[in-house]
Amino acid sequence: MTKKLSININIDGRIYPLTIMKEQEEKYRKAAKILNEILLQYKKKYAENDSKDFLAMAAFQFVLRNLELEERVDESPFIEKVKELNEMLGDYLSINE
Fold first, then answer.
1. How far apart are CA 76 and CA 88, in angstroms?
2. What is the pLDDT of residue 69?
3. Cα–Cα distance between 10 and 35 in angstroms, integer?
């Protein structure tokens, strides 16, 4: 049985209580750390802006990266293999009729 865990995540100086699966704790804490590092970079570079601007830019950066990763996923080898197996199966079934 998977145990749930209550944790507090600090993002840009604000605490967010979360209930997560225990085995996901490290991933959640790492995500918060990475986000805070990105926010700190924006704060150093654009000191005159508001924290909301930094959060918006960080969100934009992550969404853009996610879209880039989605574009990299190439399903064509799997589709070709399924077509090939389908043809082989069709040939086998037609021979054994």
1. 18
2. 85
3. 10
Quickly list H helices, the chain: 25-45, 51-72, 76-95
In tens, the pLDDT along 32-77 reads 999 999 999 999 998 888 889 999 999 999 999 988 888 877 777 7
Provide the CB-side half-sphere exposure for 70 (13 A, CA). 6
What local confidence, expressed as pLDDT, does residue 94 receive?
Answer: 79
Distances (CA, A) of 21 to 2, 27, 32: 7, 11, 16
58, with CB counted inside 10 A (0-12, 13-18, 19+), is buried
Range of the domain at 88: 4-95
- Exposed e or buried b for every residue in 60-97, given b needs 16+ CB within 10 A? eeeeeeeeeeeeeeeeeeeeeeeeeeeeeeeeeeeeee
Whole-structure pTM value:
0.68
Domains held by the chain: number: 1
